Amino acid sequence: MTRASRRPIDPRAARTPRAAVDSAPREHVILLHGIWMRGITLLPLARRLRQAGYSVETIDYASVFRGIQPAVTRLRERMQAQDAGAVHLVGHSLGSLVALEATRGVRGLPKGGIVCIGPPLRGSAVARALTAFPGGRLLLGQSAEPLLEGVDAWKGSRRVGVIAGKLPFGLGITLGPLVAPHDGTVSVEETQLPGISDHRTVDASHTGLLFSSEVADLTVAFLRAGRFAPTPR
């Protein structure tokens, strides 16, 4: 053993890097599911986000019986309750509309980005087709209006990234024509909205978007940089 290796190590110096890491505010992500779904469907995405270093929670809401407004109110409360360096929102389908409406024109919320996955931002042709069937509107419940009408152009300060699917498999194609490309439920055209920061399409169906490793990687990239990673050439 050399003289240098026997030199005592100051334990305070050894602990300093870890202490600095622990004291840094962790960034938080809130996940929101779509209509007819529950938070459990977001577990694979939540796991990938935790592996990337984020703390994660999921908000469950009664999409049919209560609509999006109670979820909007609860989401704002959860955002304000967080002691984090940033609070990001990630929504699937209808959950994306909840995320946008919760932050639209609202001051005093923590900073952070928004990722919308398979969102019917311009309204859903499948939802409109469903209302043509007896009892179809009842299946949409209190979320009928946002699904039929979509949302206004985005003018908020938060950066918004949109991921759309283009694998045409899903119940939606049995209800009526969808403009191609689409994910079986939402067309790529319906996911495009003036004011968003970035847009990407992937080979996944509407439900498959939730289990796609590519979607998870794109989500992490956007939350870190405010844009999606460049498409490989």
UniProtKB/TrEMBL annotation:
Positions of the UniProt region annotated as Disordered: 1-20
Keyword hit for Hydrolase: yes
Domain of life: Bacteria
One example GO MF annotation: hydrolase activity
Domain called AB hydrolase-1: residue spans: 29-155
Keywords, comma-separated and alphabetical: Hydrolase
SUPFAM superfamilies: alpha/beta-Hydrolases (SSF53474)
Gene3D superfamilies listed in its UniProt record: alpha/beta hydrolase
Pfam families: Abhydrolase_6
Protein name: Alpha/beta hydrolase family protein
